[in-house]
## 1
Amino acid sequence: MDHELWSHQNKNSHEFSSSTISTELSLISSSFQSTCKHGGLISRTHHYSSAFNSMRNNRMKTWKPNGRNLKNKVRQYWSCSTSLELYDNPWKIKKALTTSDLGKLNRLLFGAELLENLMLPVLDADAQRDAESGMGTPIRVWDVDTMSMHLLILKRWASFKNYVLIGKWNHDFVRRRELKKGDEIGLQWDSYRHCFNFSVLKRIDQC
């Protein structure tokens, strides 16, 4: 009787241990390993794991945590920079005003590369063509400092192959905002209003 009871308990204990869920941390269960060992799956899994570790180690060797990796060049596009920075300056079109920007020529001069990268792409095809041909295209400019909307003309200046903003530049900006030589102004594209925002970023007499 005791022998039968012992055999029954031992059998239950064996069944319990074989059905218990393993708490061992493993990517492949022991039962799966045992089942697939003869089929070659384990060797292939080991091969893929080794290849992955090799690729990861190679990437770690090529990456170096120095200043050049952490501070990339700021891209000249309206999208946010992906480089590690505390602040992404939205005023990507900036200029310190010169004497000619404030004179009787009544125009604000910009380099061709700057406006071709940042201003022309946001205009429609007809507006781009008119600006590049020298005919000129109107653009709306919102003064964020005074909360007022203005209209300027963007055109390519053929003699210098640069771009200028003309129209009421002197009246609406130079005189109204009392701009001086050395003042820094900025422009940014406002996709919500479909216009360019304008601001006086720095006054020369306040530096």
## 2
Amino acid sequence: MKSILMALLLAGAGVGAAPFTPEQEARIRELVRETLVQNPAILDEAAESWQRQQEADYQSNLGRLIESQRKVLFESPASPRLGARDPALTLVLFTDYNCPYCKRFDPEVMKLLERNPRLGLVIKFLPFKGESSNNSARLALTLWSQKPEAFLPLHQTLMGKRGMLDDSAIRTALKATGHESLRASDESAREVNINLQLAREFGVQGTPALLVGRQLIPGAIPYEQLEQIVQAELGAPR
């Protein structure tokens, strides 16, 4: 392989700045083909190297994006906030009341908060699944802005409803938590739009998605994996 690669280098050096002749181009293609046929592992190495570079670029871009959107992500008073008052680590959960994976993942996140009192959680609703997703998200956001202490029971009631929500299910949830007269505010619509813009910027195309430090984790991962990721982030130097 070394001799072939040297031949390629010499071929390039021999023509200087001048373009390759058709014969030289054909020979270079032949040499490259021979190299790959004799050493197919080169392709795997190249693919792995490309993947590592892509991941490094993604993490670098994600870090810059998090810093540029830090206030919106972590400090917006319009976003529901649970967990520690002064957290060592704040998670950001992108979720949807009509998403079956969110319904499965939400209890795991709540268990994580209970078991890790140093954690905080910010909830960002992404109503990707229809009008009832949007309506339920806006009602939950409105209740948060009016009575933060009453948010969690309604949130868990809506998340606990199997299948897609409809108007009747939403009314039932409001009645069960003592908020039959609640109406969605204009501010809640603005917050939803901000969340959707954030999703576009971060490339979130589905729910749930969880931001842990500088990792954006898609999907409903198992609790053990979630705990491991969070503990590693809590133990990382600040």
## 3
Amino acid sequence: MDSTWGCARFFHLLLPLCLILMINGVEFCYGGITSTYLRDKNLSLDMPLHSDVFSLPAGYNAPQQVHITQGDREGKGVIISWVTPDELGSSTVLYWAEDSKVKNIANSTVVTYKYYDYNSGYIHHCTIENLEYDTKYIYEIGDGSNARRFWFITPPKVGPDVPYTFGLIGDLGQTFDSNKTLTHYELNPAKGQTMLFVGDLSYADCYPNHDNTRWDTWGRFIERNAAYQPWIWTAGNHEIDFVPEIGEYEPFKPYKHRYFVPYRAANSTSPLWYSVKRASAYIIVMSSYSAYGKYTPQYKWLTNELPKVNRSETPWLIVLMHAPMYNSYAHHYMEGETMRVMYESWFVEYKVDVVFSGHVHAYERSERISNIRYNVVNGECTPMSDQSAPVYITIGDGGNQEGLVTEMTEPQPSYSAYREASFGHGTFEIKNKTHAYFSWHRNQDDYAVEADSLWFHNRYWKSSEQLAVASYR
């Protein structure tokens, strides 16, 4: 085919698409698409403390702030956590398979902490292991009149062709927009079976003296979802809580006491970086605000971790971190650059499918690009198309009180495929070992809109020729 005719035909076909996209509120720039949809620029307002989302459960010392996460390496375990505010209370969990009459008992460990003038309640963490795959379990905590009952569903057995859906939220906070985000996620027909949370939870550090009562209100706020499906936790900068001027010298103190993760099962030395397998996905959680340079514990752990990934068993490799490596917004611009220089070549070598981040209070999706050829000698510092590279998705748009980031670098860089300054949530639907579907849902008034999406073609299970055709399409 004549190349000139082919190019002309391509742009002839592209023109109607451009017009459609412009009509629907997007525009082409030097890079990809910048949405023209504009949100109110006012800061998000905190929900009043008397809001029903913060209400206390009935009964004296009733368990509250209930949440669960994966409790082992393979998905047969769960960590159930809750707080009793006034006294220790019951430290046991009663649980049973929905179709079974046999009830089991597990004991929790209990921790407390003091932060400035705040004393925590009794924080219970109960790890239950050796559950059956793909089974609905009922669990009960508390006793007598204050007993509370919840449920969860374990994932299917780890395997290459197992469909599974993850939800995605970051930088949530506890504002009216936070509530919209969580509500829209709950109402999404394709909502996840497990939440991947990319950091910045309660924003308690935004209140005077890092008011830790705001950790309690946030825990009650998310309970309606986090008590029923696991949230895979990532720590962000608002979890650091390092304030020497008020006598607080231990970083991440509230976070580490409240949100346990199965890091020891991944041979990690810290709960801030770890990994789990779930269905057909291998999920690696990294810490943007812990030391990650050469010879640090996080570096050594990841050096040993990536070679363990068996793409014949778990074809989808997902990385979670808080600060994005690629970002074209003015806020936090290039903040993740040192981590990118350190680890991007590893992500390309091991063909990470997608890196999800937060931190920037907006949404952005990258092309498959890398900048691994750059060094201080050759000066080749332009990101290039690279089908071995991950897609980088920033989803720090949960709804926190700091508001949206609307100022963007211009022109839109070539690595940026789509960006929009709106609140919202995402889903990552693994269909099988070859295909997955990502969608981002903008909070628009009283409903959610699928504003951006992308089909993922797994690089391990596709030939380079197939990938080239998929990329062209």
